[in-house]
Amino acid sequence: MKSISVTSTFSVYDAIEELPKEVQDLMIQAVEIRKKAYAPYSRFRVGAALQLDNGKTVLGSNQENAAYPSGLCAERVAIFQSGAIYPEAKILRIAISATGDDKEVAEPIPPCGACRQSIAEYEFRQDMPIEIYFMGAVGKIYKSNSLKDLLPLTFDKNFL
């Protein structure tokens, strides 16, 4: 038997004001769209803002459903919408903000596993990394240079 080691590196910003201006604007949009999430069951709201290479920004918030598997996370709402409206555009970066209705989250909240797999699909499709910035309601922001930092052992079309 042998072992492998997988290491990821993230940049950490202490506040939105430390982010590059275009990323600040994107994160502010993620925070605003988060407030429009439909989250009556979890009471956990997530907002995502995507910046595309065509200059467009696409927003998404989580949309829950009483039949729990039928809901969608904010990241997938935004990603699928961008794929539908701008199928040729590449996603440059994603900003994500999350918090609870009953508890303000001050820790960075990364995408869930299903969202990571969806982001991976688009990273493979566009053959270009996607920067991912994520935060809670307040506090530090983590930056991943690629989905591969969050999901280093990916499943993709090459396995099919």
Main attributes of the structure:
160 residues, 6 strands, single chain, alpha+beta, globular, six-stranded mixed β-sheet
Total strands: the figure is 6
Can you count the helices? 4
Largest β sheet strand count, sense and barrel closure: 6 strands, mixed
- Following the backbone from N to C, one meets helices and strands in this order, namely EHEEHEHEEH
C-alpha geometry: globular
- What amount of the residues lies in strands? 15-25%
- Output the radius of gyration: 15 Å
Largest sheet strand order:
1-6-5-4-2-3
Low-pLDDT segments, ≥5 res: none
Structural class: alpha+beta
Head-to-tail CA distance between termini: 27 Å
Quick check: average pLDDT? 96
* Share of residues in helices: 25-40%
Describe this structure in words.
This protein is an alpha+beta fold and about 160 residues long. Strands 1-6-5-4-2-3 form a six-stranded mixed sheet. The protein starts with 10 loop residues before the first strand and ends in a 10-residue tail after the last helix. It has four helices and six strands. The radius of gyration is 15 Å and the shape is globular. About 30% of the residues lie in helices and about 20% in strands. The mean pLDDT is about 95. Strand 5 (about 130-135) and strand 6 (about 140-145) form a beta hairpin.
